[in-house]
Every structure is written in structure tokens, then in C-alpha cells.
């Protein structure tokens, strides 16, 4: 087993003198265990893909990824997905002149929320975020990973936000984006390791996720306005649309928040399913 690991040392961004074989042996045991847990059709086929997964698991043991996931989520598939998104972002940064990430503010999030009304603004997001040193990557999720997004600070100094677009709903897209941006606002000092999110799972026991949820919600609809939302009481599409126009957000965002808070997924189906953001992106 030592020889098998040593053969792949060159695939790591460390020198052989920095590579501790004893740590790698422990990582390799975890790697083999995780590999065997994957469905056969999802297992890496090539030696390079296996080495990349080995590296991700090895790095994750040293600096653990923060997962927000449900019981049905597969953390190994999530790491494989994140590795793909990170590779795309790293290549993009290497080929383009992207400024370093110097931070993002709560006011920036509020300004972004004004873009939600017009779906054509979705195509502008990558350029807007790049100007702030944030690389936005859309990478299709692996079946069984059950994830929505991730954020991370690249070694080159830029921030990465990855989105799986597993749902095409407008409300899910904007909440996921705002949630990951909220991590950059609130938790950037912790993002030398990635945060990978399944936003269908409960965040009640994770303070970092609760903070990001709260900021994302308030950035899209300020809490003082949400308290007085007539649609919360009438539950009519007409009031949802009227309120969304008054506060300057897409009606699907208001409808989606009501569905989530009331646990009434039967409400406003026409509003939330009218558009699929994947068609615009």
C-alpha cells in the first residue's frame, strides 16, 4: 500500500519532503473505505480520478469540510462534485485576469437582490461577481450527492461559489446564491476549507448555517418588510405578486419563502414553477 500511495505523490500540490507517509496511510484507509461505499457506476475509473479523490479525502481529514447534509446525502460524492467545480474555477483563474477577493458586504447582497425581478439579469451575475473576485461556477450535481452549493477561498486568492442547479426554481436559485454569498460575508476566515450545502437539510443545530440562512433571507426580503407581508395571511397569488412588486423582488421568492415557512408545498405552484433558471443560464 505504501508504494501505491507513493506512486501518486506527484499528483499532490506538495513536495515529497512535505508529504507525511504516515498521514497518507491513514488517509488511504479512509479513501478505500469511501471508495467501496460508492455505487459502482459512480466510482472513479482512471488512476488520475482516484488520485484526485484520494487527495480530496486526505485534505479533508487535515482541514475538514463543513457539510450541511441530509441522511441521504453522500459526502464522498459531494467531495467529488466539489473537486470538479474547484478545478473549473482554478483553470478559469489561471487563464483570465481575475482580481483577488477582498470581501463583500451586506449592502452588496441587498443590491444583488434588486436583480431578481428581471430573469435576464441571471446572465450578468458571473461578470458582477468576478469584479469582486468571486468565481461563480455552475456544475451539475452527481446523483446521490443531494447538494445545492458550496463556497471556498481558492489558493490563488479568489473566492469560489459553486452551484449545482439541482432545482430550476427562481426562489431556490436566489436563496442558494445568497446563502453562499452570506458565508463569504460572515465566515470568510473559515473558508480555507470548503462549505458544501444541501439546503433541504435542517440547519437548526449549526450556528454557521443558521447565520447564513438568516442573512440570505433578510437580504432578499428585509425582516421589517416581511413582518407586514399581506400574503402571509391571505395566501393569495395576487397579494404575493403585489407585495413582490412593492419591495422589488421576483414573486417566486415571496412564494417560495411562504411555502418553506408554512411547510405548505402545495401553495403557489404556478408562481414558483413558471420559470426554470437553467434555461436562462
From TrEMBL:
InterPro entries: IrrE_HExxH (IPR010359), Rad_response_metalloprotease (IPR052345). This is ImmA/IrrE family metallo-endopeptidase. It comes from the Bacteria. Residues 135-258 form the IrrE N-terminal-like domain.
Amino acid at each position: 500500500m505504501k508504494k501505491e500511495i507513493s506512486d501518486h505523490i506527484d499528483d499532490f500540490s506538495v513536495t515529497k519532503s512535505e508529504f507525511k507517509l504516515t498521514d497518507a496511510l491513514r488517509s488511504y484507509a479512509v479513501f478505500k473505505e469511501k471508495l467501496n461505499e460508492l455505487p459502482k457506476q459512480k466510482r472513479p475509473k482512471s488512476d488520475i480520478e482516484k488520485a484526485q479523490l484520494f487527495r480530496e479525502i486526505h485534505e479533508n481529514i487535515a482541514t475538514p469540510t463543513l457539510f450541511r447534509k441530509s441522511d441521504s446525502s453522500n459526502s464522498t460524492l459531494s467531495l467529488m462534485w466539489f473537486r470538479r467545480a474547484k478545478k473549473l474555477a482554478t483553470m478559469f483563474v489561471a487563464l483570465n485576469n481575475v482580481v483577488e477577493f477582498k470581501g463583500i458586504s451586506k449592502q452588496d447582497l441587498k443590491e444583488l437582490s434588486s436583480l431578481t425581478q428581471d430573469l435576464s439579469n441571471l446572465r450578468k451575475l458571473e461578470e458582477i461577481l468576478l469584479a469582486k473576485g468571486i468565481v461563480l461556477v455552475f456544475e451539475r450535481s452527481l446523483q446521490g450527492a443531494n447538494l445545492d452549493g458550496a463556497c471556498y477561498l481558492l489558493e490563488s486568492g479568489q473566492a469560489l461559489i459553486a452551484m449545482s442547479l439541482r432545482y430550476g426554481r427562481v426562489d431556490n436559485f436566489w436563496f442558494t446564491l445568497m446563502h453562499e454569498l452570506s458565508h463569504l460575508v460572515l465566515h470568510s476566515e473559515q473558508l480555507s476549507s470548503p462549505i458544501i450545502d444541501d439546503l433541504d437539510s435542517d440547519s437548526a443545530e449549526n450556528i454557521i448555517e443558521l447565520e447564513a440562512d438568516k442573512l440570505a433571507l433578510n437580504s432578499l426580503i428585509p425582516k421589517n418588510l416581511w413582518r407586514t407581508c399581506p400574503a402571509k395571511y391571505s395566501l393569495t397569488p395576487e397579494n404575493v405578486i403585489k407585495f413582490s412588486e412593492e419591495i422589488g423582488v421576483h414573486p417566486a421568492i415571496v412564494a417560495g419563502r411562504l411555502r418553506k415557512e408554512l411547510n405548505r408545498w402545495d401553495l403557489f405552484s404556478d408562481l414558483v414553477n413558471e420559470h426554470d433558471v437553467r434555461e436562462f443560464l
